[in-house]
Design brief:
The protein is an alpha/beta fold. It is about 50% helix and about 20% strand. It has a single domain, classed as 3-Layer(aba) Sandwich (Rossmann fold), CATH 3.40.50.150. Keywords: Methyltransferase, S-adenosyl-L-methionine, Transferase. One of its GO terms (molecular function) is methyltransferase activity.
């Protein structure tokens, strides 16, 4: 299953990354619209603000060697390399993304500080204790084995290093909230199908995995309210002529994903989809 899923993810991002960059820019992640989600700002600025807010929340002010797991076309990698004056290694399943990230690094004169490669996050080609900061921004949802993924992130982290993982989750199911309903599971299944996801779990479940690994100073947060406006902004921008024309040439999977943007927007509205943060130290 994992090999087939990886192929689907690769093909999805090979086909869609160029269009995303053309229409929406280099940052392939949510934007931050203030804690209450009410701030009015340009979408790309909101995406940069998310990176800044995450660094502040995780209390990471410096790093020498950073791993960006699920690096896309290098948006976060290049930003972190420049801001923290660090060396950043980015991994992705998409050869198209890795090549584009390398090209963008060269254009930004950051080739000496960055490297990008195709690699599986469940079996990383790095020695133990290789990085002092592991950054995973919206890639955990793609992982077919969440525990193995976090175990690999922990393995390559240096003692004293920080892991910051930000990922799509479903609502917690403990206590009075109760288990997911049949309608909620159906909604999630549609999101999985469209965005090449095996499944998502709740933030408390991620925290339990992290505790079992021995991650110290563990903290979690739910920023769903702060990022939820992003999807309506993307929906609006997808309706411009340039985006529509690009979609026609990007393949059915990309078209299907664009037509299904409302799944995420409605998921946030009903409290089913959550934007979970987890940070800890080895």
């Amino acid at each position: 299953m994992s090999a087939t899923l990886n192929q689907r993810i690769q093909q999805f991002y090979d086909a869609s990354s160029g269009l995303w960059e053309q229409i929406w820019g280099e940052h392939m992640h949510h934007g931050y619209y203030g804690a209450a989600g009410k701030d009015k700002k340009e979408r790309r600025q909101a995406q940069i603000d998310l990176i800044e807010e995450l660094l502040q929340w995780s209390q990471v002010e410096q790093a020498q060697k950073i791993l960006d797991v699920g690096c896309g076309i290098g948006g976060s990698s290049l930003y972190l390399a420049e801001k923290l004056q660090a060396h950043v290694t980015g991994i992705t399943l998409s050869p198209v993304q890795a090549a584009r990230a390398s090209d963008r690094a060269a254009a930004a004169q950051l080739s000496q500080q960055t490297q990008f490669q195709v690699a599986d996050a469940l079996n990383m080609p790095f020695a133990d204790a290789s990085f002092d900061f592991v950054w995973s921004l919206e890639s955990g949802e793609h992982m077919p084995d969440k525990a193995k993924f976090m175990q690999e992130c922990y393995r390559v982290l240096k003692p004293g290093g920080t892991l910051l993982m930000v990922t799509w989750c479903h609502r917690p199911t403990g206590g009075s909230a109760g288990e997911l309903t049949a309608d909620e599971r159906k909604h999630l299944a549609e999101i999985y199908r469209v965005y090449c996801l095996p499944y998502v779990i709740s933030l408390p479940e991620y925290a339990a995995i992290a505790r079992n690994l021995g991650l110290q100073d563990l903290r979690t947060a739910d920023w769903s309210t702060a990022v939820a406006p992003f999807w309506n902004v993307v929906i609006d921008s997808a309706l411009n002529p340039g985006a529509l024309l690009g979609l026609l040439f990007s393949g059915w999977d990309t078209i299907q994903a664009a037509l299904s943007l409302g799944l995420m927007s409605r998921g946030y509205e009903r409290g089913l989809i959550r934007f979970g943060l987890l940070c800890g130290r080895k």
